[in-house]
Amino acid sequence: MQARIIRSEDLVRVPWKNGGDTTAEVAAFPEGSGFGTFGWRISMADVRSDGPFSVFPGIDRTLIVVEGGGIELDVEGVAFQLDRTSPKLSFSGDDITSGRLLAGPIRDLNVMTRRGQFRHRTRFVESGVALLAEETGVAFLVALDGPFDVTLDSTIHSLQALDTLMLEATQDLILLSGTGRAILVEVAPEVSA
Predict the structure, then answer these.
(1) Is the pLDDT of residue 193 over 70?
(2) Rg (CA), the chain
(3) CATH fold of 118-189, please?
């Protein structure tokens, strides 16, 4: 199984699509694609002030708070509070969305897939065993706390907080160990009916 660690400190921060704050791309497909051309994109954004989110037509998004006191998202006039107890929300990139910080700056994990090409799912995992869905093409494990170890084919990959392990799809068992949690992101091609 092919696997690659993407260290948090190696991520390059760039302005948001709307220029409001900064984001760091973890990975995107195709590699080197821009905001308008990616099939899928995983990134971490810093949100230091209240304001509008970038609009991404044709994109399905999931936003997960990974650091900080939380944010209230207003998605087309409906408020959703994301904090430590409920840190995740999936919504359409077409929707007009704005954020209001609850207790200072946050960092979020942002998963985006282009509708009609790819779809994604996210879940929290802890020590134990994980198995990817059969249709998964690529997966990411993002450590929320460190250290978090992932054993694949008898090789141990050690992650610190906010490091990411990118791995090709496999039906092998993925062994997870550590005292914290991680986020498992699975991206699959969209299959037309």
Answers:
(1) no
(2) 16
(3) Jelly Rolls (2.60.120)
pLDDT in tens, 120-163: 999 999 999 888 888 999 999 999 987 899 988 888 999 999 99
Amino acid at 41: R
Look up residue 146 and give its two tokens: 């460190």
Looking at 16-20, 38-42, 166-170, which range is the least confident one? Answer: 16-20
Distance CA 1, CA 153 (A): 7
Q: Which of 107, 111, 109 is nearest to 120 (CA)?
A: 111
Helix (H) or strand (E) holding 100, with range, is: strand 97-101
Q: Give the tokens for residue 25.
A: 């791309």
CATH 2.60.120.10 fits 10-114, yes or no: yes
> Cα-flanking dihedrals φ and ψ of residue 54, to 5°?
-65, 145
- Contact between 150 and 126 under an 8 Å Cβ cutoff? The reply is no
